[in-house]
Amino acid sequence: MFWEKEIQRCEETGLEAPDPIPHPDDIIVDIKTGRVEIREPITPEERPAWDKLREQKAKTEDLIVKIKAARKKNPHDAELVPALKTQEKLKERFSVQIPDKLT
What we know:
two-stranded antiparallel sheet
């Protein structure tokens, strides 16, 4: 609650809002089960690793788009099928480890 008020105050006054770790918007609480999911690093020391994984995830997603485009142009290229499967598996692993940002 504190961070939400502070961020709102900064936005209203034109100040740069703090970037709390974890950000309140990235803490998901399932009220029915009590399950808590944190979609951001918990400490400042974790942030560089998360940022690097997000960058790798984005590169993987870009590569998937390029491979799919290449398959449309050359559907008989046998090397593209395993390459696409590999990149899709990587993306799936990244998505489990590093969920998409909510903020």
